[in-house]
Structures are given as structure tokens and as C-alpha cells.
Write a structure and sequence with these properties.
Layout lengths: L31 H5 L5 H9 L20 E2 L26 E7 L13 E7 H9 L12 H18 L4 H5 L8
Parallel strand pairs: 1-3
Antiparallel strand pairs: 2-3
Length: about 180
């Protein structure tokens, strides 16, 4: 199983099984990295420019792992392990998110491998994230959300619903005639 730089499990054997579309891929199939970061890898940018900036993976016999600048990061909407959905509390900046970004592969930690190392992330709820790093739990385990995770999500939904209710200004501020001066 893949490991973090600290040696803990990331919960997968092959990060590319969970890898999605490259973050650098434009809607028309071009490589945004070659367009915007040509100075960082001139040779790569030259090759893409010669091919009208088309994504390398569009070529025959190429896969995401073949591109030296491939990156797939999560949208953070749902835990890929248990399916728990994120509910953000915008007005409470101190509220810890239910979902966390989990790295399956670490950019720059290629070691002795000939394959390039890519940043590949997925979303895991805090509870699944802890289980993956602290045990032999796998990202692809078929599990239901933890009871504590469900309770935290329902608490947020209740708070969200209470904000939609109408209260008059007199109810919100409960001012008496003595307070008006």
C-alpha cells in the first residue's frame, strides 16, 4: 500500500485508480500548464505547443501517469469512502470542516522510481481520514458514515435550518423601552 512521507498508509495500492481528470486540462482538451507555466518546463511546453497545446493524454498509448505535470485534486463535496456530504457553515469560520483533503500521492516524492510523482487527492470525512491513517482501513472500503459523523452533519443541518426561519427585529433584539435612548 502507498505510504505518506511519514510512513503512514494512504489507503490505496494504486492512486491512479482514484485519479480524476487533470486539473490542468481545459474544456477544449488543451493543457493549461503548458499555456500558463511554459517557463517552468520549457521542453514540455515546446512539445505541447508543437501539438497545438493538446493534452498529452489525448495521444495514443498515453495515460495520466505519463504526463509529468498531471495533478488531480478533490472538489471536497463528499467522502469517497463513506459518502458523507460536506455542509459548510459560512458564518462560523471556526467550525472544522466535515471533509478533509487526503493525499493519495505526493508531488515531489518520486524517490528512485522512473515514473513521475503526481499530486492526487480525494475527500475523506474526518472519521474515515483518521481510520485510513491509523489502521489498515482502505479508501475503497464499502462503509457507512460513522455515527459521530452523522451526528455532526445533522447538527449542522439543524443549525442551517434554524437560520432560514423568520424572526422579527423585536424578537431578535428583544429591546425594551428603557433601552431606547
Amino acid at each position: 500500500m502507498e505510504k505518506t512521507p511519514e510512513g503512514t498508509s494512504v489507503g490505496v495500492d494504486d492512486p491512479y485508480e482514484f485519479a480524476g481528470r487533470c486539473d490542468h486540462l481545459t474544456g477544449d482538451g488543451r493543457c493549461r500548464y503548458a499555456l500558463k507555466h511554459a517557463g517552468d518546463d520549457p521542453e514540455f511546453a515546446r512539445a505541447r505547443r508543437a501539438d497545438e497545446y493538446r493534452c498529452l493524454v489525448g495521444e495514443a498509448d498515453c495515460d495520466w501517469r505519463d504526463c509529468p505535470h498531471y495533478r488531480s485534486t478533490t472538489d471536497g463535496r463528499e467522502c469517497v469512502r463513506c459518502g458523507l456530504e460536506e455542509i459548510r457553515m459560512a458564518h462560523r469560520s471556526s467550525a472544522r470542516p466535515l471533509l478533509e483533503e487526503h493525499h493519495l500521492s505526493y508531488h515531489g516524492n518520486g524517490g528512485d522510481d522512473a515514473d513521475p510523482s503526481h499530486e492526487i487527492t480525494v475527500s475523506l470525512c474526518r472519521w474515515c481520514h483518521a481510520k485510513v491513517h491509523r489502521s489498515f482501513a482502505r479508501v475503497d472500503d464499502d462503509v457507512n458514515p460513522d455515527t459521530e459523523a452523522l451526528a455532526a452533519r445533522e447538527q449542522r443541518r439543524s443549525e442551517e435550518q434554524s437560520e432560514f426561519g423568520f424572526r422579527s427585529a423585536s424578537e431578535r433584539f428583544d429591546r425594551t423601552s428603557d433601552d431606547r435612548s
